[in-house]
Design brief:
The chain folds into two domains: 46 residues, YefM-like fold; 45 residues. Helices cover 62% and strands 15% of the residues. It has five helices and three strands, in the order βααββααα. The protein has a three-stranded mixed β-sheet. The longest helix is centred in the middle third of the chain and has 25 residues.
Length: 96
């Protein structure tokens, strides 16, 4: 991965786009801090998972949180409300 500045990007946009479309990746840094990445369209599609996969992953994470909360409650390590109750209360508060 090659690191470039916004000025490099402006000066050599055509060449950088050609290199990116050929598979090279670019990290754009401003003041030595990363601000963006430039990748080929194919790489971008692989990085951008579809909506359904993102929803499935999020729901699986919530299920794991609920399971962990139940385990903690059963072990006596946590005697407060369950994680699913806390999540629902938080969501209801945000929706209000």
């Amino acid at each position: 991965m090659r690191t470039i500045s916004p000025l490099d990007l402006r000066k050599s946009l055509g060449a950088i786009l050609d290199a990116a479309s050929a598979g090279e990746r670019f990290l754009v840094e401003r003041d030595h801090k990363p601000v963006a990445m430039l990748v080929s369209v194919e790489d971008g599609h692989r990085l951008d998972e579809d909506r359904d996969a993102r929803i499935r992953r999020s729901l699986a994470a919530l299920d794991r949180m609920v399971q962990r909360g139940q385990e903690l409650r059963e072990s006596g390590a946590f005697d407060g409300p369950s994680s699913d109750v806390l999540l629902r209360e938080d969501r209801d508060r945000d929706d209000a």
